[in-house]
Amino acid sequence: MFISAHDQQQGAHGLVLNRPTNKNLVDFLPDRDLEGLGEIPVYLGGPVGPQELTLVSFDWTAGEAKITFHTQLSLDQVKSEAGDGFKRVRAFVGYAGWVGGQLENELQQSAWIVHPATESIFDGVPNDETWLSLMKSLGPAYHLLAIAPDDPSLN
């Protein structure tokens, strides 16, 4: 989960980065002239607004170890940035959202495992292996948690 906007009173907005739909932009916009953008992968961003398609760019600045991102990009904006040897563009259907204070409450209850942004999160094609790699980097206990089956009776 990448938290793209956060305000304790107003709430938070985020995108699931590692849930590919196995479809590309052309599958969602078949009647549009995408000029080469049709191969942009589409991810399931979250359960809210499942009919909303959002284009997002990510750019990792290694020297500063920070991520810059832009959401709600138009096709023209993506084409313009792609012409500049572009960073990383992904499309998302849906997003995750929290009302004011909800995310803070979930964090206090340890409902989320927090990991700082790293280049590897935004490099390549994120999938279940991305999550496994991040969990493994947090130590052996988290690695065991990551490889445990969803249904413990299957263990």
Stated plainly, the CATH topology is called VC0467-like
How many beta strands in the DSSP annotation?
7
Q: Please give the alpha-carbon distance between the first and last residues.
A: 26 Å
Major sheet attributes: 7 strands, mixed
Give the overall shape, derived from the CA principal axes: globular
Oligomer: single chain
Number of helices: 6
β-strand percent reads 25-35%
Average residue pLDDT: 84
Helical amount among residues, as a percent range? 25-40%
CATH class: Alpha Beta
CATH superfamily: VC0467-like
The poorly predicted ranges are none
Number of domains: 1
Secondary-structure element order, N to C: EEEHEEEHEHHHH
Radius of gyration: 17 Å
Can you offer a commentary on this structure?
- Helix content is 26%, strand content 32%.
- The mean pLDDT is 84.
- 14% of the residues are buried.
- The chain is an alpha+beta fold.
- It has a single domain, classed as VC0467-like (3-Layer(aba) Sandwich), CATH 3.40.1740.
- Strands 1, 2, 3, 4, 5, 6 and 7 form a 7-stranded mixed β-sheet that branches.
- The chain is built from 6 helices and 7 strands.
- The radius of gyration is 17 Å and the shape is globular.
- The longest helix is centred in the C-terminal third of the chain and has 10 residues, at 128-137.
